[in-house]
Amino acid sequence: MRAAWYEMQGPARDVLTVGTMPDPQPGQGEVRVRISVSGVNPGDVKKRQNAFGYGMPDPRVIPHSDGAGHIDRVGEAVSSELLGSRVWCYGAQSYRPFGTAAEYTVVPIAQAVALADDVAFEQGACLGIPGITAYQAVYAAGPVDGRTVLVQGGAGAVGVCAVQLARRAGAVVIATVRTPADESSVRRAGAHHVLRADADIVDRVRAIAPTGVDHIVDVAFGANVVNDVELLAPGGSIATYATDRDQPAIPFWPLAFKNVRMFFLGSDDFPSEVKRRAAQALNEAFAFGWDGFEIAERISLSDIARAHEHVESPTRPGRVVVVL
Fold first, then answer.
1. Which stretches of the chain drop beneath a pLDDT of 70?
2. Does the predicted TM-score (pTM) go above 0.90?
3. Distance of CA 76 to CAs 26, 117, 200, Å?
4. Which CATH number fits the domain that encloses residue 137?
């Protein structure tokens, strides 16, 4: 099969190789997916960069955890009726060496989720890490029906999903964005209020929710935690999945006096039941009319280094996908 891989970590153009390698074969309880589109997430780029300092987990890594395509082979104990099914898959390179930047990938059957005929492969390829993270971020503290949810970073991949899932769950959704260009996708996702993340953000959120917001989904914990604690209602909660700095200062007493609950989320290690419910909720969002992600770049496998560079330094809003 054609695939992209790296055998050392570093800059994309220095370490990514495109070539051929043997086709993978599914084992017991696994399926092989012929990949049509591979999604590129910031986490995929950070693994290749060694941004987390964990080094190479395997001698050779095919990057990207998320993708979409057809099941073309099944392993033992998997029904042959699934052959030819359209699916989106996740976790292909989570604790596994070979992800979706290849013609084929192998995943456990639970990680290959049915994709409706009217949903494009490029949308399915973007769902895994962002969508599952968003689901847990929205529901970490419990149901949000009738509550006010603030999504910090609503235009990001996780943010857009969180806005859609919180709106479908019955919340009043406030989302922050960095630029006017980000506003349209966040409104399409279902945000009731979209605000620019600037120096006046606390006052403008308070004008909408004078008694405070109930729950915050946060993309930049270090930068936002001081504002978050000001904006939370007593007994509120924060679910965060990323930070702008590794060891942020935490305003302990303001958080304690408001009895704030905090959730730090890493999608690779969510319980399997959370992932199952998340996949169901994301598919339902499309079934009920969500149009999904804006696609900024569609890039061929042979040019995968450029795809990684675009994720590192975006030139336009939206997701980057690699087309096989």
1. none
2. yes
3. 8, 27, 58
4. 3.90.180.10
